[in-house]
């Protein structure tokens, strides 16, 4: 099994810096997801690992060998693309066997491996079709098959599910997870979809502005986001943010004191500007007159089946709250929001970093 | 999956008023008729006797449809001492056109490939120089080309004509392929690289098979240009490889003597028959190839 | 890679053909522009004689003088010259000779006695620095006018001999509802017609001063101006379809009785003959003001510097065939041109050609064409001026005279 | 953005480019430089290297034919390009609506492009002939005063050239634009219909801007036709009446060959190329800037 290490990796297009000082250690058999908005450099990083991208500085180690200047085919990797990138004039079988033929693998061995992979991915009936005769989901299965058949130690996925509709996306997500459990290969997966990241990853690497913002298990990323960017990017609906000023251990938000002590290890000095973050599910709606919590007005109610999403406003501040489906709130109601103190996330107003 | 236009034509105005649809058909048919008039005149004239040509109007139908003028143009019209008609040149035109088109496409495709997927130093300079060269009146280049071909021993040979045709075709064909390749998703190139395909493997196994529409466009254009060429064949082919157009010109543009317009028109049509056939049989490919991104800026 | 392979393959094939072509035969390739029926008949006579002498005639007919000539020049420059190539009589070849690309024919001419065989004026057109570089092959008279005889009879006039008679006839034809004058509208034939008018109106002295001496003051003189006026008047009789019309089309209008008159060289006779018409009954030919003489034009064969002994041999045989009196005469009869060698049997000639032949062989009644004396650059510059004047709405007479005078110094 | 490629493949790319680069450099660049050089010499029939300074250029620009040629080219471009574009676009837009017999129609519009003008010029001349062309047909149909004498009229002859050239090129332009129209998103058409935008406005302001690349291609193709315009003129008017329909390419070729004025012809060719560059370079710079 093969691990991947990136050492102080930097990538430039001409004068433009795309990635800077990337250090990443991916143990063998780990499923790691590179998560970030488009343009954050995550795909570039993946291409660099694949050997499809020139590296300006730093090192790429795959299986403890320095692969920085090695050809893609010799890195022991396989790759799946967003646009599938199937060879249009070859049959599915041709697509699966092309790489093996190039590598001069013997004919019977190719056949064996193709048959095996086709069975694993349930694409046997498609083997003699052309890519143009396949549906999107089938195409991506074939693309995954093409990667699996290479028997590589490291799999690279470049937003493989982005072109699919919601149903197929979740099906294939499960498929990929199953594949990982079965193959135990190292998988590096690029996406901008935080649900994919949360569901698939052993570890998530959140990227933005040429650098890694945070890396950790999905749990760490979700529950202890390192900064406001990570906090906002992960989770749906996104975390609510309230501007506040510290006064006597509480954060004063829009004139109302919110106790935050439980979320902090050390109390903060008075007058410090902070951002108080709270996820929608960490709030509760109380009737108008309980007197504690934040008074808000209900704006929009979205029933979502098992629960309701309640959009509230208080002056300029907008907040989303998850409520049980039994909750009886109507737009225009004035309600109190109870904030779970321990679940608050406190960020420095200036740096955006977690305190 | 190919970049070709795969979605079926959509009836955009299925609900449009019948009147406006009729107007569209009317306009299309009228323009088609106008476009066809010269061809019609050529065809009827080729069947008329000289007497009919002198007395009737251009558009009147011939009294009878005999093929004697066609046969004469093909088999026995004289050019100088040889009265063998166009048929000699027909063979030569084939000998010139087929290898020229194949080589021009091969060279243009390989060049377009090298220019589009691979970082080669000064590639853009080269490409720009070639494109601007395409605007230069090519007749001015004939003298230097005569010197070049005679230096490398190709002057007045079949190879010489082909060489010059390929040189003149390169800018356009390279442009077509470069632009076509530029429209191909880069992921495909990456996938092939991960699969270990090298320079030629990628070109032959993946790129070339998906370039069929483009090859069709380049092929159709070059067949037209090369088959209709007069000056290159005349200057570089020498006496043994004079293309059909040289005979046609001899028949049509003889300065002296009475002109047989019917034979001239038949000769003209016979000379155009190959490009016309190519257009009539593969016009569909042409549009598809153009639509596939071949000719996008 | 593939392209290289294919190129190599085609080269190899070409070399095979070349080797095949080198078989031991005295092959003489001749590039010429004689592609019409009458011309081809003429070529056949020459080719037969060459074959008789033991050669193999390789015919390379390319329609259109400029096409044929530039092909020939390219072949010479490219190092694969033909054995012989046809040029117009005149200065066209000088630069080839200057660059040592032509064979010096002086010795052959001496041995074959060309001096006494052909008119001096014609032979001299191929002489540079006392050496002979060109062999005249055909002669024409350029300043002829051609009439439809039935129309002349109908409007009751005889064949015109001077300008007054010409214009009287044109007026009558016009009054009769016919096209009086149907000249060719191509620039080179307009130039030809203009020269015919200059010789006939301004006279031989002015003509020679302009053509031989390129005397711009003669162009600006009164006599030349008078010729310009006549040309202008003639132009106004031309029908609307004139611009761009080829001479065969123009001649056809006279043959078919739609027009009274056209202008052109002796080669028009061939068109009349081909249509089955007889001189004197169906059509008439005339030089206006014949005492001023006839404008001679013609073609010469040039012989590129031979590449090998076989080519020299072929050229020797070609020279022998072309300068053979019976052959040349038979050629001229077939071709409809004037026999240029002395001692030719003129009895079989058509009356128009016979008449032209009389002018041709009398130095007092013949003078060279502009093409014989001018460089092609001057011919072109003068032609541009003439065609702009010859088409209505172009230059005024004064502007034209200036443009013509300026054209004489083009290079 | 280029994908990283190993030096061996890049070398291979460079190697495959080498023969083409060699040809391009020697024939195009070499040929152009050679012609530019020759334009400063006294070359007549064959190129020579006797220096003549700017004489050829002075002669060129005082040459009435050259002046007329340039004016004709400008006039031709100004009329031919917009009209061909208009016709090509209109037909493409109509065909794009989904008509029956599209294949047949397309072939009919395209066939003129398959035929050389050596071939079709004569027919066009006949058709436009004032005495037996379409004017004659019209007269025989009862329009007794019909007359159409443009081809023999020095002021109008250039328009007959333009007509024939439009006939020749419209089909190709149509195909290029049709290809562009096929790429327009169906939703855009739906939006236009729902908004009730009049057809002409929709085409002018919405559709045409969205097929800019195809229009640019069509413009390049038409510009090539303009600069290389030769066959049509030779076949139809021979540059006449007089020199009324002369064009730069014909001027160059006449002087290069028949008139044995290689120096003057080279000066003309060089000037023509400079004109092309004067138009193309700003456009290229503009295009690159926008990127």
Outline the secondary-structure elements:
The complex is a heterotetramer of chains A (355), B (297), C (411) and D (291).
Chain A: E1 4-13, E2 16-26, E3 31-35, H1 42-50, E4 57-62, E5 65-66, E6 77-80, H2 92-102, H3 107-120, H4 136-148, E7 154-158, H5 166-183, E8 186-191, H6 194-200, E9 203-208, E10 211-216, H7 218-223, H8 228-233, E11 240-247, E12 250-253, E13 256-259, E14 273-278, E15 283-286, E16 294-303, E17 307-314, E18 317-324, E19 334-339, E20 345-348
Parallel strand pairs in A: 3-8, 3-9, 6-7, 7-8
Antiparallel strand pairs in A: 1-2, 1-4, 4-5, 9-10, 11-12, 11-14, 12-13, 14-20, 15-19, 16-17, 16-19, 17-18
Helix pairs in contact in A: 2-3, 2-4
Chain B: H1 18-47, H2 50-55, H3 68-75, H4 87-117, H5 123-135, H6 142-151, H7 158-182, H8 186-194, H9 199-210, H10 212-228, H11 231-237, H12 244-252, H13 261-294
Helix pairs in contact in B: 1-13, 3-13, 4-7, 4-10, 4-12, 5-7, 7-10, 7-11, 10-13, 12-13
Chain C: H1 2-21, E1 27-32, H2 37-52, E2 56-61, H3 65-77, E3 84-88, H4 94-98, H5 106-112, H6 114-117, H7 120-124, E4 127-128, E5 131-132, E6 134-141, E7 144-148, H8 149-154, H9 163-175, E8 179-181, H10 187-213, H11 216-219, H12 222-237, H13 247-255, E9 259-264, H14 268-274, E10 283-286, E11 294-302, H15 309-322, H16 325-335, H17 351-360, E12 366-368, H18 370-373, H19 376-390, H20 397-407
Parallel strand pairs in C: 1-2, 1-3, 8-9, 11-12
Antiparallel strand pairs in C: 3-11, 4-5, 6-11, 7-9, 7-10
Quick rundown:
The complex is a heterotetramer of chains A (355), B (297), C (411) and D (291). Chain B is built from 13 helices and no strands. Chain B is mainly alpha-helical.
């Amino acid at each position: 099994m093969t691990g991947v290490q990136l050492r102080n990796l930097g990538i430039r297009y001409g004068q433009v810096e795309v990635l800077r000082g990337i250090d990443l250690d991916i143990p063998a058999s780990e499923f790691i997801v590179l998560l970030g908005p488009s343009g954050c450099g995550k795909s570039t990083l993946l291409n660099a690992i694949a050997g499809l991208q020139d590296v300006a500085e730093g090192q790429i180690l795959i299986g403890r060998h320095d692969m920085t200047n090695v050809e893609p085919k010799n890195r022991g990797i396989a790759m799946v693309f967003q646009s599938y990138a199937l060879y249009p004039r070859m049959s599915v079988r041709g697509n699966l066997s092309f790489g093996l033929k190039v590598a001069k693998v013997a004919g019977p061995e190719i056949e064996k491996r193709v048959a095996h992979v086709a069975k694993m991915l349930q694409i046997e009936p498609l083997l003699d079709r052309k890519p143009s005769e396949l549906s999107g989901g089938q195409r991506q299965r074939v693309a995954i098959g093409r990667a699996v058949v290479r028997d590589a130690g490291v799999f690279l996925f470049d937003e493989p599910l982005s072109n699919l509709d919601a149903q197929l996306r979740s099906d294939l997500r499960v498929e990929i997870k199953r594949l990982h459990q079965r193959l135990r290969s190292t998988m590096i997966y690029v996406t901008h979809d935080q649900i994919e990241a949360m569901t698939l990853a052993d570890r998530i690497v959140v990227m933005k502005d040429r650098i890694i913002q945070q890396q950790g298990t999905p749990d760490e990323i979700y529950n202890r986001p390192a900064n406001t960017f990570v906090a906002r990017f992960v989770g749906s609906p996104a975390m609510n943010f309230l501007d506040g000023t510290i006064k006597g251990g509480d954060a004063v938000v829009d004139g109302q004191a919110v106790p935050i002590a439980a979320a902090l290890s050390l109390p903060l000095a008075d007058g410090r500007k902070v951002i108080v973050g709270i996820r929608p599910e960490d709030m509760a709606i109380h009737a108008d007159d309980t007197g504690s919590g934040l008074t808000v007005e209900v704006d929009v109610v979205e029933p979502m089946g098992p629960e309701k999403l309640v959009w509230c406003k208080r002056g300029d501040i907008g907040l989303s709250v998850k409520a049980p489906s039994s909750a009886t709130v109507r737009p225009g109601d004035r309600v109190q929001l109870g904030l779970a103190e321990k679940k608050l996330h406190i960020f420095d107003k200036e740096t955006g970093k977690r305190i | 999956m190919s970049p070709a236009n795969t979605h079926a034509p959509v009836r955009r105005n299925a609900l449009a008023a019948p009147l406006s649809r009729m107007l569209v058909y009317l306009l299309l048919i009228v323009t088609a008729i106008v476009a066809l008039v010269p061809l019609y005149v050529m065809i009827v004239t080729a069947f008329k006797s000289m007497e009919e040509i002198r007395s009737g109007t251009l558009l009147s139908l011939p009294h009878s449809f005999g093929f004697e003028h066609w046969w004469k143009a093909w088999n026995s019209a004289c050019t100088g001492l040889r009265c063998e008609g166009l048929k000699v040149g027909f063979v030569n035109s084939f000998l010139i056109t087929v290898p020229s088109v194949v080589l021009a496409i091969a060279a243009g495709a390989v060049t377009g490939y090298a220019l589009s997927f691979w970082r080669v130093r000064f590639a853009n300079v080269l490409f720009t120089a070639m494109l601007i060269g395409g605007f230069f009146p090519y007749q001015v280049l004939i003298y230097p080309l005569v010197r070049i071909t005679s230096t490398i021993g190709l002057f007045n040979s079949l190879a010489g004509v082909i060489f010059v045709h390929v040189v003149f075709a390169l800018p356009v064909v390279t442009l077509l392929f470069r632009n076509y390749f530029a429209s191909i998703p880069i992921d495909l190139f990456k996938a092939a690289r991960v699969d270990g395909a090298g320079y030629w493997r990628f070109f032959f196994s993946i790129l070339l098979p998906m370039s069929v529409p483009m090859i069709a466009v380049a092929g159709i254009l070059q067949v037209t240009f090369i088959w209709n060429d007069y000056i290159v064949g005349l200057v570089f082919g020498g006496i043994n490889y004079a293309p059909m157009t040289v005979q046609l010109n001899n028949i049509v543009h003889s300065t002296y003597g009475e002109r047989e317009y019917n034979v001239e028109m038949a000769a003209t049509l016979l000379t155009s028959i190959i490009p016309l056939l190519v257009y009539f049989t593969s016009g569909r490919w042409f549009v598809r190839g153009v639509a596939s991104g071949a000719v996008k800026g | 890679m593939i392209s290289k392979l294919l190129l190599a393959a085609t080269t190899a094939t070409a070399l095979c053909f070349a080797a095949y072509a080198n078989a031991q035969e005295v092959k003489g390739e001749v590039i010429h522009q004689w592609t019409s029926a009458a011309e081809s008949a003429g070529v056949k006579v020459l080719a037969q004689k060459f074959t008789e002498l033991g050669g193999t005639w390789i015919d390379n007919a390319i329609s259109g003088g400029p096409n044929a000539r530039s092909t020939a020049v390219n072949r010479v420059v490219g190092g694969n010259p033909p054995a012989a190539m046809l040029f117009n009589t005149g200065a066209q070849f000088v630069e080839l000779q200057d660059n040592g690309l032509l064979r010096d024919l002086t010795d052959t001419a001496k041995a074959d006695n060309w001096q006494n065989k052909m008119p001096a004026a014609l032979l001299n057109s191929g002489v540079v620095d006392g050496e002979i570089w060109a062999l005249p092959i055909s002669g024409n008279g350029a300043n002829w006018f051609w009439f439809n005889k039935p129309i002349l009879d109908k409007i009751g006039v005889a064949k015109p001999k001077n300008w007054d008679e010409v214009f009287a006839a044109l007026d009558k034809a016009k009054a009769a509802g016919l096209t009086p004058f149907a000249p060719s509208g191509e620039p080179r034939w307009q130039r030809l017609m203009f020269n015919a008018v200059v010789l006939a109106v301004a006279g031989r002295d002015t003509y020679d001063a302009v053509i031989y001496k390129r005397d711009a003051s003669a162009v600006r003189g009164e006599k030349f101006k008078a010729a310009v006026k006549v040309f202008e008047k003639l132009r106004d009789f031309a029908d609307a379809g004139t611009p761009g019309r080829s001479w065969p089309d123009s001649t056809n209008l006279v043959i078919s009785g739609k027009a009274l008159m056209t202008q052109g060289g002796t080669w028009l006779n061939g068109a009349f003959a081909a249509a089955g018409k007889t001189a004197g009954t169906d059509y008439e030919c005339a030089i206006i003001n014949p005492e001023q003489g006839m404008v001679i034009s013609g073609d010469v064969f040039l012989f590129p510097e031979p590449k090998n002994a076989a080519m020299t041999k072929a050229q020797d045989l070609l020279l022998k065939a072309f300068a053979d009196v019976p052959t040349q005469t038979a050629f001229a009869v077939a071709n409809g041109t004037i026999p240029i060698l002395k001692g030719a049997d003129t009895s079989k000639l058509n009356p128009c050609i016979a008449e032209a032949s009389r002018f041709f062989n009398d130095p007092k009644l013949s003078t060279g064409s502009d093409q014989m004396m001018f460089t092609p650059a001057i011919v072109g510059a003068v032609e541009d001026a003439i065609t702009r004047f010859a088409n209505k709405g172009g230059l005024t007479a004064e502007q034209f005279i200036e443009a013509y005078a300026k054209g004489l110094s083009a290079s | 953005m280029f994908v990283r490629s190993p030096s061996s493949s890049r070398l291979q790319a460079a190697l495959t480019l080498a023969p083409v680069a060699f040809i391009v450099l020697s024939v195009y660049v070499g040929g152009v430089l050679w012609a530019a050089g020759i334009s400063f010499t006294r070359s007549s029939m064959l190129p020579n290297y006797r220096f003549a300074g700017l004489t050829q250029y002075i002669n060129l620009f005082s040459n009435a034919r050259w002046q007329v040629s340039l004016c004709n080219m400008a006039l031709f471009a100004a009329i031919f390009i917009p009209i061909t574009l208009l016709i090509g676009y209109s037909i493409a837009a109509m065909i794009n609506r989904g008509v029956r017999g599209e294949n047949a129609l397309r072939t009919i519009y395209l066939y003129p492009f398959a035929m050389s003008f050596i071939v079709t010029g004569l027919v066009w001349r006949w058709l436009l002939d004032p005495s037996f062309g379409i004017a004659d047909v019209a007269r025989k149909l009862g329009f007794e005063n019909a007359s159409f004498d443009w081809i023999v009229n020095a002021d109008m002859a250039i328009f007959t050239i333009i007509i024939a050239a439009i006939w020749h090129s419209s089909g190709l332009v149509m195909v290029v634009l049709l290809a562009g129209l096929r790429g327009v998103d169906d939703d855009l058409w739906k939006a236009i219909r729902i908004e009730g935008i009049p057809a002409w406005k929709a085409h002018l302001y919405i559709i045409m801007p969205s097929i800019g690349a195809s229009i640019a291609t069509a413009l390049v193709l038409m510009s090539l036709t303009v600069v290389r315009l030769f066959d049509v003129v030779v076949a139809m008017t021979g540059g006449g009446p007089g020199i009324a329909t002369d064009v730069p390419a014909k001027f160059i070729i006449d002087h290069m060959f028949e008139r044995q004025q290689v120096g003057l012809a080279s000066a003309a060719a060089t000037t023509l190329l400079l004109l092309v560059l004067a138009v193309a370079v700003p456009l290229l710079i503009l295009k690159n800037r926008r990127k």
